[in-house]
Design a protein that fits this description.
Elements lengths: L1 E14 L6 E22 L2 E3 L3 H15 L4 E8 L9 H16 L6 H7 L8 H7 L3 E4 L2 E2 L22 E5 L5 E8 L8 H10 L4 H21 L2 H11 L3 H8 L3 H13 L5 E4 L6 E6 H19 L4 E6 L7 E4 L2 E2 L2
Parallel strand pairs: 3-4
Antiparallel strand pairs: 1-2, 1-12, 2-4, 2-5, 2-6, 5-7, 8-10, 8-11, 9-10, 12-13
Helix pairs in contact: 1-2, 6-7, 9-10
């Protein structure tokens, strides 16, 4: 059987204040490219040609939950970098979990699988992207003593369930994503990520209020009206606010210089920012605008490539969830 899913962009954790009894609340989008494609079959142990720690971790947690002693043979047919801001860990764990679920007839939902393999404890974008794709806004987690969360933590260190999905929409096919992964130190993970959450939060309530204003009066209406200019304005504003501003500030000097250079060749109709903790940079533009400025952007990237290696992916919004095929038939 095979599981095919895509990367995701993460536009920000929107409420890292918690003064209204809720935290996290994430905005993001599923991508058609790059992709993760795995082929899996039953086995006595866990074997794989890539990400062995994640594959083994997923199977161990599933076995523990179901009281089984199963294995999987996992062959990775297509992949993309980990810890660069494209949500690889969640997609990898859920891909293995979906294969286990189908092969061993567990009949769990994507959200149930996410809880078992402990994803979605902060941002729910990766889980929702695997489940349904699209442009996504989740509702975060209840916050305070006795609630889902009582401290600010990344998904890797949180046992909270995936948050509810508040908004999902399909983006037009002529909105093009240029996803740039520069050669740079990987984004934060593990203890440095936990320390960053603890030192950065809580965000001042004034910034969180401004973020809510941008989401409700700019970004969500622009998605429904398919207005790329207003959408770009909103995404660009998010980069200057709250937790996302701090994520941008900790980027390497080379990444900051790349952003500055790209800003110089773009206009107000193009969204530009960092995905998650980076170093992945994204640009979003309508195809006609992108084609008009293609020469400037290519020239800019060639100039940068003389000093820094960059992986470049062209994508659209992935308006469907993961595809799980068993004997040629889709099982989820």
């Amino acid at each position: 059987m095979t599981v095919e899913t895509g990367a995701r962009l993460h536009f920000g954790l929107l409420d890292m204040t918690g003064d209204l009894g809720r935290v996290d609340i994430s905005l993001g989008v599923a991508l058609t490219n790059p992709r993760l494609v795995v082929r899996a079959s039953p086995a006595h142990d866990v074997t794989t040609n890539a990400f062995p720690e994640l594959a083994r971790l997923a199977v161990e947690r599933l076995n523990e939950h179901y009281g089984l002693r199963k294995g999987l043979k996992v062959e990775v047919l297509e992949s993309y970098p980990q810890h660069v801001g494209l949500g690889f860990t969640t997609q990898a764990l859920l891909s293995v979990a979906a294969a286990y679920n189908a092969l061993y007839e567990r009949k769990a939902t994507v959200r149930e699988l996410a809880r078992i393999v402990r994803r979605g404890g902060t941002s729910g974008i990766g889980v929702a992207a695997f489940e349904a794709g699209g442009f996504l806004l989740d509702g975060g987690h209840s916050f305070g003593p006795g609630k889902e969360k009582d401290q600010f933590l990344p998904s890797s260190d949180s046992t909270s369930p995936p948050p509810p999905l508040l908004f999902r929409a399909e983006l037009p096919d002529d909105w093009v994503f240029d996803v740039l992964v520069p050669e740079s130190p990987p984004g934060l993970s593990g203890k440095p990520e936990i320390d960053f959450f603890r030192s950065t939060c809580p965000v001042h309530p004034c910034e969180t209020s401004r973020i809510a204003h941008v989401i409700l009066s700019c970004i969500l209406p622009s998605v429904m009206e398919r207005n790329i200019t207003t959408f770009a304005r909103g995404i660009n504003l998010l980069a200057t606010l709250g937790f996302k501003r701090r994520e941008t500030e900790i980027q390497s000097q080379s990444v900051k210089e790349l952003i500055k250079t790209l800003c110089n060749v773009n206009d107000s109709t193009i969204a530009l920012g960092i995905s998650s903790f980076g170093p992945t940079i994204f640009m979003i533009a309508q195809s006609k605008t992108r084609n008009r400025r293609r020469g400037n952007i290519r020239s800019c990237l060639r100039s940068i490539a003389r000093h820094t290696s960059i992986q470049h992916f062209e994508a659209r919004c992935r308006n469907q969830g993961a595809i799980i095929l068993t004997n040629g038939r889709q099982s989820i």
